[in-house]
Amino acid sequence: MSKPFTIGPLNHVGVAVPSLPDAIETYRALYGATDITEPFDMPAQGVKVCFVNLPNSQIELIEPLSEESPIWNFVQKNPKGGQHHVCFEVDDIHDAVSVMKERGATVLGEPRIGAHGTPIIFVHPKNSNGVLIELMETPKGDH
Amino acid sequence: MSKPFTIGPLNHVGVAVPSLPDAIETYRALYGATDITEPFDMPAQGVKVCFVNLPNSQIELIEPLSEESPIWNFVQKNPKGGQHHVCFEVDDIHDAVSVMKERGATVLGEPRIGAHGTPIIFVHPKNSNGVLIELMETPKGDH
What we know:
Keywords (chains A, B): Lyase, Metal-binding
Protein name (chains A, B): Lactoylglutathione lyase
Family (chains A, B): Belongs to the methylmalonyl-CoA epimerase family.
CATH architecture of chain A: Roll
Oligomer: homodimer
Radius of gyration of chain A: 15 Å
Structural class of chain A: alpha+beta
CATH topology of chain A: 2,3-Dihydroxybiphenyl 1,2-Dioxygenase, domain 1
Number of helices of chain A: 3
Strand order of the largest sheet of chain A: 2-3-4-1-5-8-7-6
Largest sheet of chain A: 8 strands, mixed
Strand content of chain A: 25-35%
Distance between the termini of chain A: 28 Å
InterPro entries (chains A, B): Glyas_Bleomycin-R_OHBP_Dase (IPR029068), MeMalonyl-CoA_epimerase (IPR017515), MMCE/EMCE_epimerase (IPR051785), VOC_core (IPR037523)
GO molecular function, one term (chains A, B): lyase activity
Largest interface: A-B, 45 and 45 residues
CATH class of chain A: Alpha Beta
Number of strands of chain A: 8
Helix content of chain A: 10-25%
């Protein structure tokens, strides 16, 4: 029998922002963050992202690449930016998806490769106290 | 010379919810969380809170105690709940407050004792990409 499904570490908090350079400057100049990754485009997701590395977790800064971006409307509604999602690690994404569905949650789309190179899915905010939850397969190996 | 100011670990993500028991049930039944603390009232802050303990961090679930609660309006606007704040640890709260002010940020109120028993302050969302940031002095000793 496989072990019961449970979420693992809080991998990151996703913050949607109108401008990555401005947001990076905030974390660097105001909060003194010293380890911020280089921004990179994820055209399939319609976003440009970078990570503020903290000792135990990360802030994912996300800027829409265009008006087609899934976060475009969010940034229109929140012109300064705002908390967009919380990401928990899971051992196996396919196991997670079937558990979520079995338990009545609405899984958004099919598993796809996320910013850490492992498969992810999102669970609808209506299932989790208004919070959009990303589930991400824990990176194996050098992460 | 003291070391330069920087934020430490991501202590927790604060999620405001209309009902702690329902939110606890979500984390237990849907996400399989097994370590959730007993809810307790913080009358001075107008909230009842509990923590979902994850291997590296926590989700703080927060329910307003009354209409006077500072999160009452947030829950009215977000009736299912929603991400309310992100909390970073700092070495020294008084140092953090003076650095924040020196750097032009709006610190909300004076340091007060937070849910972990150490002093906290909040930084206005306008200073941090629309995200309300809590700074919390790292608990010393048995934490």
